[in-house]
């Protein structure tokens, strides 16, 4: 099951499949698509897993074992890669709140987000090679964009699983929080990004011509929100 919470501009998608450690099955892919549709217009999006053991433990092998031909495997990979592409292309900041381990396909979902925030006791790894396969949902390319081609090849090619602190050191995770304050912490970060400028900053960071970046700034400048904030600042000036 995939749940969606909407909270004053913040959308939180929770993958809740405790019987499979939040693994991704074909039905989960459909539910993620529906949740992304329903989250349209949110100023920040968070992807998380239910519980505290797994963010996403990968693909659901019991379900995916039914795929026995190259065509079926390619169709599944194309389907979930499309979901991850939608997460990456969401027009507002996207946070992966790593409440538990993110392994294999779970790591691929995590790197589709803009920012990864992890509890300090989680582990993350592109360990598909342990099943004699490779990342299929766009994760290898996104990993390389985060940590560099050589590091990505070393990590995914060997199937190395990293502790949270080491993943932060190599640039795979942006912030590590104590388990005791994790839920409060990721929500505070998400709320800090729940504003229109953050979405425009994400778009500009993705690469736009200078004039388009200037136009984005100008639109924000003339908006009522800017002038209300400016008036508050100026009213405090001596």
Automatic annotation (TrEMBL):
<comment type="function">
    <text>Could possibly oxidize fatty acids using specific components.</text>
</comment>
<dbReference type="InterPro" id="IPR001753">
    <property type="entry name" value="Enoyl-CoA_hydra/iso"/>
</dbReference>
<dbReference type="Pfam" id="PF00378">
    <property type="entry name" value="ECH_1"/>
</dbReference>
<keyword id="KW-0276">Fatty acid metabolism</keyword>
<protein>
    <submittedName>
        <fullName>Enoyl-CoA hydratase/isomerase family protein</fullName>
    </submittedName>
</protein>
<dbReference type="InterPro" id="IPR018376">
    <property type="entry name" value="Enoyl-CoA_hyd/isom_CS"/>
</dbReference>
<dbReference type="InterPro" id="IPR029045">
    <property type="entry name" value="ClpP/crotonase-like_dom_sf"/>
</dbReference>
<comment type="similarity">
    <text>Belongs to the enoyl-CoA hydratase/isomerase family.</text>
</comment>
<keyword id="KW-0443">Lipid metabolism</keyword>
């Amino acid at each position: 099951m995939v749940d969606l919470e909407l909270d004053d501009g913040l959308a939180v998608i929770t993958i809740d499949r405790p019987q499979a450690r939040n693994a991704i099955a074909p039905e989960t892919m459909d539910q993620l698509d529906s949740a992304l549709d329903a989250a349209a217009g949110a100023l920040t999006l968070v992807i998380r897993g239910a519980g505290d053991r797994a963010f996403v433990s990968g693909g659901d092998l019991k379900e995916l074992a039914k795929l026995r031909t190259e065509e079926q495997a390619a169709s599944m990979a194309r389907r979930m890669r499309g979901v991850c592409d939608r997460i990456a292309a969401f027009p507002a900041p996207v946070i992966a709140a790593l409440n538990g381990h993110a392994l294999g396909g779970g790591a691929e979902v995590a790197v589709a987000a803009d920012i990864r925030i992890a509890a300090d006791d989680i582990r993350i790894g592109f360990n598909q090679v342990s099943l004699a396969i490779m990342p299929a949902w766009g994760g290898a390319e996104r990993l390389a964009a985060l940590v560099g081609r050589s590091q990505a090849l070393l990590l995914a090619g060997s199937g190395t699983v990293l502790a949270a602190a080491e993943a932060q050191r190599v640039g795979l995770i942006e912030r590590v929080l104590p388990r005791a304050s994790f839920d409060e912490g990721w929500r505070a970060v998400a709320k800090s990004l729940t504003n229109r400028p953050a979405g425009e900053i994400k778009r500009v960071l993705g690469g736009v011509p200078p004039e388009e970046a200037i136009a984005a700034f100008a639109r924000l400048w003339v908006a009522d929100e800017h002038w209300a904030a400016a008036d508050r600042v100026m009213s405090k000036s001596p």
